[in-house]
Amino acid sequence: MSKASKVTSIRIVLSILIVLLLIFPFYQMGIDVPTYLYNNIVIDIRYIISGIIFILVALLDIYDNYIAKKEKTVTVFSNMFDEIAGVLLVNCILIILAVSGMVSPIIAVVIIVRDLIVDRMKFVISCYNKSYKNTIDLAEKIILTIGLIMTLFYNIPFELIGLRISDFLLIVAAVLAVISGIKYYLVIKDFLNTNSSN
């Protein structure tokens, strides 16, 4: 297993750890999870720990891509599971935050549905032995990651002055996700039209 594949595996394990930390029924098991009151904000320590792990996963993603390009060790495993690691973490956290009322369900639905549709489009594009780099994807991923991390950290310090920066970033990410999805559709439409005319 290449170094990049090992890093991807670590990212998947950490992603599962975050999800388990956020959904495990500690209270039903009789375990008191520490909460703190900070300037009228009730802070659940699970979200802070999850935010720290999320930052680590994001840094490992950058390192993973760097290693794969530097050592030219892009494998089927790293290609497939790199995508799974990212989608698993982001989509699960979006669902959890939407259920807990920390993120608008509309944003969660838009981003998750877009991911499902675009994944199929990427598959179709790859069936034609083509590749397509959508620059909006990268911007959406970065903005979404920062927005989710800020949400896990209760939008502090901006929350203290009434600025909902985390919500704004997530709205921007959702808009970029839609635009990116439209761009993928236009590309795949060209592939399908070209193929059907042959």
* Global mean pLDDT: 87
Low-confidence stretches: none
Radius of gyration: 19 Å
CATH architecture: Up-down Bundle
Q: Give helix % range.
A: over 70%
Distance between the termini: 42 Å
CATH superfamily (homologous) name? CDP-alcohol phosphotransferase transmembrane (TM) domain
CATH structural fold name: Four Helix Bundle (Hemerythrin (Met), subunit A)
- Beta fraction of the residues? under 5%
Task: Quickly count the domains.
Answer: 1
Q: List SSEs in N-to-C order.
A: HEEHHHHH
Shape: globular
Largest sheet entry: 2 strands, antiparallel
What structural category characterises the helix and strand content?
A: mainly alpha
User: Total strand count, please?
Assistant: 2
Q: Counting H and I runs of at least 4 residues, what is the number of helices?
A: 6
The neighbouring-strand order within the major sheet is 1-2
Return the CATH class. Answer: Mainly Alpha
